[in-house]
Amino acid sequence: MKRSSPHPFDVSVGQRLRAVRRLKEVSQADLGDAVGLTFQQIQKYEQGQNRISASMLFELAKALEVSMSQLLGEAAEVQNETMRLVDGAEAAALLRAFQRISSPRVRREIIHFVEAVPDIWSLE
């Protein structure tokens, strides 16, 4: 049976690939160069238009310094939701900055502040 649209699993893997790539601040061209592909092929993978072979998934994960399971989505649904949340430039930048903070106390304070921001701005 031939599909006219991408399989939902291929789309999901592609979305995770894109989210991880953006989080790591790697361009499609740079990722393609690292694994011997064009940026157009990376684009097709990210859109779920082309399936990623097991060996290519291994190479992509290695180039991005993540596990294959992170790209496949074998982890809990919470991880999938997290990947959707970080699929944006601002969210990725915020996470990168947060990772550089070594003090647990400062991290907790920042979390409390960020959680309060929607309530503060809704009052205006």
Automatic annotation (TrEMBL):
UniProt KW Manganese keyword: no
Coiled-coil regions listed = none
Q: What PROSITE patterns does the entry give?
A: HTH_CROC1 (PS50943)
**Nucleus as a keyword?**
no
Q: Name one Pfam family in it.
A: HTH_3
What residue stretch is flagged as signal peptide? none
Q: Which residues cross the membrane?
A: none
**Which UniProt keywords are present, listed alphabetically?**
DNA-binding
HTH cro/C1-type domain location, by residue? 17-71
Superkingdom as given in the UniProt entry: Bacteria
SUPFAM superfamilies, sorted? lambda repressor-like DNA-binding domains (SSF47413)
In terms of InterPro entries, this protein maps to: Cro/C1-type_HTH, Lambda_DNA-bd_dom_sf
Molecular functions (GO terms): DNA binding
Protein name in the entry:
Transcriptional regulator
Organism encoding this protein: Caulobacter zeae
